[in-house]
Amino acid sequence: GTALAAFDSDGLKFGSDTAAANALDDYEEGTWSPVYSATGLSPTHDISNGYYTKIGNHVFFSMLIGTSAVSGTSSGYQLTITGLPFTSLNSAISMSSGSVGLAYKFVNNENGIKWFIGANTAYLRFYDGDSNTGAMTETNHLSSATASNRMYITGHYLTA
Question: What's the rounded mean pLDDT across residues 62-88?
Answer without folding.
Answer: 90
